[in-house]
Structure formats: C-alpha cells, structure tokens
C-alpha cells in the first residue's frame, strides 16, 4: 500500500501533466485499496477473496468546458496519453457556466485534523476465518435456527488523495473491519431470515463475533409465524436499523443539485420548521474513527461539524461548488468525489440526536401500532415526498411489542412524517448514518 505522500504525489503528477497539455485547470483523485474477505457456511470455509486496486481519475477544464477520464494503467506513457486525451475531450464538450474548481480562497490549508481513521494491525485470513466461524456458530446455536446463509469477516486498508491545479493537495488513509452472520429460522414455508453485522475503522472496536451471531439468530427466530395487521392509521415505530433511512431521504432532498433543479419536496423549506421542536440532525466529519469521517471534502475544502436541523428548523443546504454557484451561495464542504465524473454531494457521519424518552416510554401509550424492522422496495418520490414502503416487523399492542407481522405497507408523506417524528434516547453510532428509535404518528398501514 502506498503512503499518503506517495498517493498525493500520484494525483499531483497527473494534474501537472494536464496543465502542461493545455488545461486551464484540473483536479485529480488517486485511490488505492486492498481487502481480504472470508466467508464460511455451516462451519466450513466457503470463500476467501483478496482484492487490490489502484485507480486515478482526472478532470480538466478548458474555459468553461470540462471532461473527466480515469485509468488503472499508471505507467508514465499511459498517464501522458490520458492527460492529452482529457484536454482534447474538454475542447469538444459543451460549456457549463457553473462548473469549475472550488473557490481558491476557501481551500483547506495547514495540517488536517487527526481523525484516527486507520490502525496499524495486520489481520491474517486465519483470524478472519475464526471470526466468521465464531459469528455463525453463535447464530446457529440460538434455539429455533434451522439453517445458515453464512458468516463473514473482512479487513481492508485504503488511501485516498486529491490534488488541484490551484493549490490543494491532500491525502488520508483508512482501515475497515467487519463481521456478519445471516441465518434462517423455522422450516418449510414458515422459514424466516435475518442477519446482523458490525463495521469499524479499528479492529478492537468491533463487537465480539459471538454477539453479532447471537443477535442474528435471535432476530431470525423472533420473526417466526408472522401474522397480519389490520389496515388503518396508526403510530409506526422505526427500529434504528431502518430509521436511519429517513435521514437519507432528508439529505437527498437538501442536496444542492436537487434544489437547483427544483426537484425536492423541501424546495422552499430552508429556514423553516421541518421537524418537531427539539429534533436536531447533525453531520460530523470530525468524529474520531467514524465510518464516514474525512479531513477535507471532495474538492479540497475544509469540513467541520454542522447542524443541518436545529430545534426542528432546517438550517442549511448541502452544496458542492457547482450547485453553490448556481444558487448564488457558498459551498458547504459536502462535495464528494469518485474516480470518474464531477463531484456530487454527500454527508459524512450524519445522525439525529437522541431524544429524551426511553424506547419503552415511546411505545408505552400506543394502543395499536407497528414496530418496523425491515423495509422493502423504494417507493419514495423525491419531488413530492410521497412515501410508501413494504415492511415487516412486530405488532405493538397496549404499549408492548408482541407478535411478528409481515407483508404490510406503511405510507405517508415525508413532510408530514418529519413533522410528526419523535426520537427515543437510544442513539448509538453503528453505521454511516445513525438515528435512535423513531416514532411517527398517523401513518397509513395497509395489511396484506
């Protein structure tokens, strides 16, 4: 694996080649990664995989015309040809008045924040296999589990670098580890499947494989013999595994490109109340060893924690440089850059703050409702906010979670859903996007 300095130099080198070939401006991304994955099933080794890659992406500007190219051939001759081809492509591209590099005066300078995104350990395939076997064995040991889809474990390391022709160069390294288990409970037509997994930047922060497996087994068994739910309007409680998806709909609706195209259900919502008082949504790129932490954004701008929703009020759009120019605003440090194409927009460690009530209290006054643990299908209109998803989970009766239910649909409109949302106090940071248990009153539930 290259060092961050070597990765940074790779990106800087192709930018120099592009400007020498006639580009007025350019930026480049270099990414290298190596990963090992091991999977087992029914106690036997099923697969061992190893992947390594190095890729480079270049974007060039000739006036207001631009082009993007990428390659895995990093030989000097290939890079020289790549730069010349990119400039030739840009000269033939249509003009885009909004495209361009990030404002030079906004670029990050100085030492990046220390985010502790990588550890120094080496993990052998034998160790990964042992973790995968332990997770699956614990899942299969849960009474009622009848079969297994397998256990898995992985380890990866990567380095990512960005360089621009107007003065930015930076790189950072990350590691990642994961353990998972997926099992089946019951027999015949009554079989039910569920899973659990955990990912972390540092291996010593992973949940114990046996705990991951046990949760997978218990979840599968709990889903056995699902009943039906009668249709009607009722409270819906979202398990944290699925509730975080609502924050994904929020971030998509406030992305600068959606606002500029006028294709968002929150088009006129900036500075207005979109959630109930007390609800706060934050984005924290500086979270130590966070799964989506980063020291700078995809255009070289500094990043910092930001309140997206404060006390229910929508405080900001998410803007890269192009959408900021189009809207007459400043970029917010949320640009995301892949190997190919222009930057887009993304959040980092997005989360909804914990509320003040325990989960038991959140559901304690629900005479009849549903607790959702799985959502199926897409069913979300980003322009209108209309929301309709297939679901499975558990019935809530007289303030208690009771029997499993399946084959029902939950529906509403995200504007109304956000306004009626109440968070519990059980937030934990397990994923890239995190939310506590969420309750939304007045949703439409349609039974099968």
UniProtKB/TrEMBL annotation:
Residues 121-224 form the Metalloprotease TldD/E central domain. Residues 29-90 form the Metalloprotease TldD/E N-terminal domain. InterPro entries: Metalloprtase-TldD/E_C, Metalloprtase-TldD/E_cen_dom, Metalloprtase-TldD/E_N, PmbA, TldD/PmbA_N, TldD/PmbA_sf. Residues 231-447 form the Metalloprotease TldD/E C-terminal domain. It holds the Pfam family PmbA_TldD_3rd. Belongs to the peptidase U62 family. This is TldD/PmbA family protein. It comes from Sphingomonas corticis.
């Amino acid at each position: 694996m290259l060092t961050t300095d070597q990765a940074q130099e790779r990106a800087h080198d192709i930018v120099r080649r592009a400007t020498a070939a006639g580009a007025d401006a350019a930026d480049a991304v270099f990414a290298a990664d190596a990963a090992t994955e091991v999977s087992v099933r029914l106690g036997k080794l099923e697969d061992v995989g190893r992947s390594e890659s190095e890729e480079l992406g270049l974007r060039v500007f000739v006036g207001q015309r631009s082009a993007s190219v990428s390659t895995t051939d990093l030989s000097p001759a290939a890079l020289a040809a790549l730069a010349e081809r990119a400039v030739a492509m840009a000269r033939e591209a249509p003009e885009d008045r909004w495209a361009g590099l990030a404002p030079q005066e906004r670029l990050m300078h100085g030492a990046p924040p220390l985010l502790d995104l990588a550890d120094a350990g080496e993990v052998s395939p034998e160790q990964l296999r042992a973790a995968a076997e332990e997770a699956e064995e614990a899942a299969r040991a849960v009474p009622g589990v009848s079969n297994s889809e397998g256990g898995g474990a992985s380890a990866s390391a990567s380095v990512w670098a960005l360089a621009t022709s107007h003065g930015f160069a930076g790189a950072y390294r990350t590691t990642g580890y994961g353990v998972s288990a997926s099992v089946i409970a019951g027999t015949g037509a009554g079989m039910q499947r569920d899973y659990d997994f955990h990912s972390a930047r540092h291996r010593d922060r992973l949940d114990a494989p046996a705990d991951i497996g046990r949760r997978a087994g218990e979840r599968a068994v709990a889903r056995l013999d699902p009943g039906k739910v009668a249709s009607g309007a009722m409270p819906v409680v979202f398990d944290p595994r699925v509730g975080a998806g609502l924050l994904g709909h929020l971030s998509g609706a406030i992305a600068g490109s959606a606002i500029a195209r006028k294709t968002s259900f929150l088009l006129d919502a900036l500075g207005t109340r979109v959630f109930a008082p007390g609800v706060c949504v934050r984005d924290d790129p500086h979270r130590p060893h966070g799964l989506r932490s980063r020291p700078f954004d995809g255009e070289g701008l500094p990043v910092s924690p930001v309140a997206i929703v404060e006390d229910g009020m929508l405080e900001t759009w998410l803007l890269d440089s192009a959408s900021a120019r189009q809207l007459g605003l400043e970029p917010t440090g949320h640009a995301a850059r892949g190997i190919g194409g222009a930057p887009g927009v993304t959040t980092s460690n997005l989360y909804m703050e914990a509320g003040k009530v325990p989960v038991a209290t959140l559901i304690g006054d629900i005479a009849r409702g549903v607790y959702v643990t799985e959502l199926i299908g897409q069913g979300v209109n980003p322009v209108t906010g209309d929301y309709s998803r297939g679901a499975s989970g558990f019935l809530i009766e007289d303030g208690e979670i009771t029997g499993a239910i399946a084959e029902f649909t939950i529906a509403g409109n995200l504007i109304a859903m956000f306004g009626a949302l109440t968070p519990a106090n059980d937030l934990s940071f397990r994923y890239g996007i995190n939310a506590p248990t969420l309750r939304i009153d007045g949703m439409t539930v349609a039974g099968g």
